[in-house]
Structures are given as structure tokens and as C-alpha cells.
Amino acid sequence: MSKDGNWIPPQHAGIKEKIVQGYLRIWFTRLSSTSSVLSYLDGFAGPGIYDDGIIGSPIVAMEEAAWALKRHTETYIRLAFIEKNRTIFEKLKKNVENYQRNLEKKYGPSVTKRIRVLVENMDFRYVIETMTFSPWKNRLHPIPSFVFLDPFGITKSGFSFDWLRTFAERSNVELLLNFYVQGIERNRSTISKERINQIFGEYIDISNKSVEEIVKWFRNKIRQELNMKVLLYEMRNTRNRILYYLVFITKSPEGIKKMKEVMGNLSGKYFYFTNEGHSDQLHLLRHDFPEFQNDFLNRFAKQEITVDDIFNYYVASDEYIWTEKDIREFLKHLEDDGSITVKPFKTDGKKRRKNTFPSNAVIVVL
Ligand SMILES: C[S@@+](CC[C@H](N)C(=O)[O-])C[C@H]1O[C@@H](n2cnc3c(N)ncnc32)[C@H](O)[C@@H]1O
Fold it and tell me: 270-293 pLDDT, tens per residue?
């Protein structure tokens, strides 16, 4: 059960951490081949390991950092865990120290000495203030950073749209935010105008808005004002009410492609990757074909394009939910019904294998 008495399906346990784990595995590994330093910031870190043994996001990040650094021997990863509550912070510190020892045994000091962990007992607000006022602000080389903000509630956390503005100023920041919309919706009669202004970056009238409308509005604000792409992952309780959204925010088309894969693979009855707030997304994914067919055949009519061009159009965009796997499946349908043909040779001059859609296959749209 959640703090506010909502029944949460047991499958929810650890789902956020699985998303963080899945994405960090790809992100740390991909970026450690091009950057010498990477950074992960967990603004609302929690204890690292819960009393029931569930592994929290800080420990997940440590494990994934070690996994990537074993493969990339020149890179350093900085991990910063911020926790306001003293007792939880003490637990976190102990769990991190123990886990550092485990990792050293598993991967050796050549890996662990390149993981720099900072555990701070402070309010996340001060981290943002330090970032904003630091005299070094514009001088530091922008380090690729992944930020996870997972407060218990948005209203109480002090969350401010300005935080997103601060991160958006840095070119290499990607963010995963736990946006507890239901808390906002429930408290809509008591929440002050100032607080709404702060959370949404401007005043919006939420008195008649549904949870879906609120989150869509928030997503569009991020897209338009910060010029960033946004993916949504929806979490519902057993009464099928939306509890919260994980909001992924990035400027990177590659980030969108990869996060779609991670979120798409972790769909279940009460939680799924969605960009439109559909309640039946799992099924809609397959029933989406006519929508794709229509859009694709109009947009690319009479053109010759590679599968990679199609991925770059649909998969790297936050306007569409589809992953590379979905697109390949759709292309197969289109080939079967004769709406497209595939050239026998790929762009590298090699033969295309029947029924496959590698990224350098050439599609001819009729
Ligand atoms: C939902 S838990 C974090 C769970 C963690 N992300 C995980 O996956 O294991 C939220 C944590 O944020 C802490 N917290 C609340 N307000 C905070 C603030 N303003 N600054 C830093 N930590 C805060 C709480 O004490 C709590 O431990």
C-alpha cells in the first residue's frame, strides 16, 4: 500500500529501479566509449537497500557503473546520492560502503577506483542552488549526466520547474522524474497558486483537469519551453487509477530510441510505456498498425528510404511510441501486403535476407 492508502500492485516493486537499471546499462556503456567522465545524480536517493531487501536506485547505479567500466578502462563515473533524512542517509552510507567492497571483490580495484561516490545528507534544493550560483557554472566542460529525481510527492518535495530549466541549460543532461500527478490532482483545492506556478513554471488552472490532461500539459511545456523530448511511463493502482508517471526528458534522439526499448520491454498490466495516456497500451501497441500504415504510406509515398531513415523518423521522436522492433514488425506487414518492396541488396552491397529489416536495407514505397 502507498503512503496515501492506495493499493499498489506487487509488480510495482522495483519497476522504477528496473527502468533505471536498463537505461543506465545502455547509457553508461554507450557514453563511456566517447567520454572520459560520466555523472549520475540521484536527488532523492533513499536507503540504497530497503529493509525487505529490495535494491534501490543508488545501488543499481553502482552496479551498472562497474559493469560499464569493466569494458571501458579509460572512463571515470561520478555518482552523487542526495538524501535529506538523517536516518535514511546513515543507512544509505552504510549500504554504499558495503556495496563498494562487494564490487571491489567482483570487479577488482582497477574498476572500482574509477567509480567516485559522493553521499550527501542534504536537501536536493541546495544542490540546485549550488549548480545555479556556482562561479564555475559556465566554465566546466559539460559532462554527460543522468539525473534521477524520485521524491515521494511532487507537492511536498519542493519540486520546481526551474530545476528542469537549470538542467536544460546543460547540453548533456538526461533526466528521469517521478511525477506524482495523483497527489497534485487530489490536493488541487488546497494547493496554492504560487506552488502551481512553481511546479509548472507558470500558472495553469488544474481545477477541472484530469490526471492525463495535467501530465500532457506538463509534457508539452517541457517540449516547447525547454526544447527537449519527453517520454511517459504510466503507473496505476489496482483500481486502475493513475498513481504517477515516470517522465523521461532528454535532448538526445538516441536517448529516446533506447529508453523506448527499456520502457517498452517493461510493460505490465498496471504499468506501461505510453505517450498518450491510453489505458490499454499493451494491446494498442499491436492495434497501432493502421495508424503507422496511414502515416508512413502518406509521408514516404513513392520514395526510396533505408530502414535507418525510418527509425530516425519514428523511433528517435517522442511524438511516436514505436520502437525499432515495432517498426520492423510493421514493415513486414507492409511488405506482405505489397505496399512496399525491399531492394534485394543493402546499401553495403550485400544481399538482404528474406523477411529481415536490417538498418541498411532499402525500402521502396509504392
Ligand atoms: C521514493 S524515495 C527514493 C527511492 C529511490 N529512488 C530508489 O529507487 O530506491 C524518496 C527519498 O527522498 C528523500 N527526500 C525527500 N525529500 C527530499 C529532499 N528535499 N532532498 C533530498 N531527499 C529527499 C526521502 O527521505 C526518501 O528517502
Answer: 777 876 544 444 433 457 888 999
